[in-house]
């Protein structure tokens, strides 16, 4: 059933209503629709202003499609909310964080300000060292499995770039990385993509503020961690750690829990290959030598 709108247009009576409290995505869609209707704009008119199709606008308003960062920023510009505390971009970030493991959004905020970053990773190259191609291959794989949407994949790749850009600052942080051997031996994407990633690791190791080590399979039980771990030292020398499993992450700020992890990390570094030996192993892989 249809009725005549206030400006002589046809407007739907049975419009799908969203509960803004049900999720950040629903809150975004409901706010976008409310802001549009307050100005008596059709979805077509808003689409022209945001440079999206009316179908896309409808999908976002009804919660069927995840908004992108570009759409959120365009909405702030069109509706004049860019200077407010409660922006569309802030709501978009809440949506994005909802697809990340618990604790990780908070960790990212500290990572960009840390004086020292120590990390251990197994299985995949960590985000701070990923090339855009490697990050995209991982995200595309998650989309193929149905774990995330295509829009979320784009935002994951963008997040990798944002994290890396945050480390390029006047006071460079000391970044220590220990990679389980599986990280460099597990092929991700096409061979040329993996070659690019391995070359990037070699370049990373040559930076003046970095240390790269490989924990070889031969370490056996001397490898002190089985799951990814990140340890931050802030400018005031306070410590925090972030650890995660397959389904959740945890940000820890209590030193009595972080200090034992720092000790174990130092033990891991002592038993791992030196940086020179680690780079040599990576170079062998690039040449196709086992």
Read across the widest sheet, the strand sequence of neighbours is 5-4-3-6-7-8
- The count of β-strands is 8
Number of helices: 12
- The assigned CATH architecture of the largest domain is 2-Layer Sandwich
Order of helices and strands: EEHHHHHHEHHEHHEEEEHH
Number of domains: 2
Shape: elongated
Helix and strand composition category: alpha/beta
- End-to-end Cα distance, whole Å, is 69 Å
Low-confidence stretches: 1-14
Fill in the CATH topology of the largest domain: Endonuclease, Chain A
- Helicity level, as a percent range? 40-55%
Strand content of the residues, in percent? 5-15%
pLDDT averaged residue by residue: 87
| Major sheet | 6 strands, mixed
Brief characterization of the structure:
This protein is an alpha/beta fold. It is built from twelve helices and eight strands. The chain has two domains: 83 residues, lambda repressor-like DNA-binding domains (434 Repressor (Amino-terminal Domain), Orthogonal Bundle), CATH 1.10.260.40; 183 residues, Endonuclease, Chain A (2-Layer Sandwich).
């Amino acid at each position: 059933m249809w009725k005549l709108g206030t400006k002589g247009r046809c407007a739907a009576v049975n419009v799908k209503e969203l509960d803004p409290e049900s999720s950040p995505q629903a809150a975004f869609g409901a706010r976008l629709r409310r802001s549009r209707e307050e100005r008596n704009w059709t979805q077509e008119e808003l689409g022209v202003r945001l440079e999206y199709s009316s179908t896309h606008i409808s999908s976002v308003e009804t919660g069927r499609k995840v908004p992108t960062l570009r759409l959120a920023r365009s909405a702030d510009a069109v509706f004049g909310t860019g200077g407010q505390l409660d922006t569309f971009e802030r709501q978009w970030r809440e949506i994005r964080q909802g697809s990340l493991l618990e604790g990780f959004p908070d960790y990212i905020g500290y990572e960009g300000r840390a004086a020292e970053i120590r990390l251990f990773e197994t299985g995949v190259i960590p985000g701070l060292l990923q090339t855009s191609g490697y990050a995209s291959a991982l995200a595309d794989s998650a989309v193929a499995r149905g774990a995330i949407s295509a829009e979320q994949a784009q935002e994951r790749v963008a997040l990798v770039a944002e994290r890396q850009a945050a480390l390029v600052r006047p006071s460079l942080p000391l970044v220590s990385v220990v990679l389980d051997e599986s990280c460099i031996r597990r092929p991700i994407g096409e061979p040329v993509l993996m070659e690019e990633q391995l070359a990037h690791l070699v370049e990373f190791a040559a930076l003046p503020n970095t240390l790269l080590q490989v924990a070889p399979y031969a370490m056996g039980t001397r490898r002190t961690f089985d799951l990814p771990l990140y340890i931050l030292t802030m400018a005031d020398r306070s410590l925090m750690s972030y650890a995660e499993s397959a389904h959740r992450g945890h940000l820890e700020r209590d030193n009595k829990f972080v200090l034992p992890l720092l000790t174990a990390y130092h033990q891991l570094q002592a038993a791992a290959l030196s940086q020179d030996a680690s780079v040599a192993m990576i170079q062998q892989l690039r040449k196709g030598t086992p």
